[in-house]
Amino acid sequence: MLIRKAQKSDLKAFSALAITTYARAFGHTFSASDLALHLAQNFSESSFAEALDKDVILLAEDGNSLVGYIQFGAVSIVVEAATLRDQELQRVYVLADFQRRGIGKSLIEAALAHPRLAEAENIYLDVWDQNFDAQKLYKLYGFEVIGKNPFIVDERILGYDLVMVRRSFRSTEQTM
Question: Taking the domains of the chain in order of start, what are their residue ranges?
């Protein structure tokens, strides 16, 4: 398995991977129209083209196939304590047939080693409150639950995401 930074030339395959993984993981929680709207707004080639300009996206490849990705950048979720020194782990997805092989862990470790996250004071993320496997994985990497935000599509609350934080050693030393 190879982990590498996403390029503009990856957009078509990457968007297809993102749509497949998201729909498989969460499609059952949406109506068909809500899922289509959410995917179009957040997982299209054009939305990822914009994301490549501001975020870091790392891809996991098995042979010549994309099997997972991780995206991180500036904090975009609602967190009152977030500062410009903080970052957000925005997405971690692996194709179902490749889960439980350590790919998600490898993606998280590559992201945490990247200077953008390694130098962050705090790293935030949100995770669906019913995604217990992901919550367990994030806790292994030092993330702790600090709040809850509504998940909104088309101005309707469809569920809730837990907000988690991984504090840097620098930020915990400053508070002591």
Answer: 2-125
Q: Is the whole-model pTM more than 0.70?
A: yes
Q: How many CA atoms lie within 13 A of 103 on its CB side?
A: 24
d(CA 113, CA 121): 14
In what helix (H) or strand (E) does residue 67 lie, and over which residues does it extend? Answer: strand 65-73
Give the CA-trace dihedral at 136, 138, 143, 149, to 10 degrees: -90
| Residue pLDDT, tens place only, 11-31 | 999 999 999 999 998 888 888
Overall CATH class of domain 2-125: alpha beta
Question: Could you tell me which residues come within 8 angstroms of residue 90 by beta carbon, excluding any fewer than 6 positions away?
Answer: 55, 71, 72, 73, 76, 125
Q: Residues with Cβ < 8 Å from 35, sequence gap 6 or more?
A: 23, 26, 27
Q: Quick check: helix, strand or coil at residue 166?
A: strand
Helix or strand (DSSP H, E) at 59 = strand 56-62
Alpha-carbon radius of gyration of the chain: 16
Asked whether 10 and 58 are in contact (CB, 8 A), the reply is no
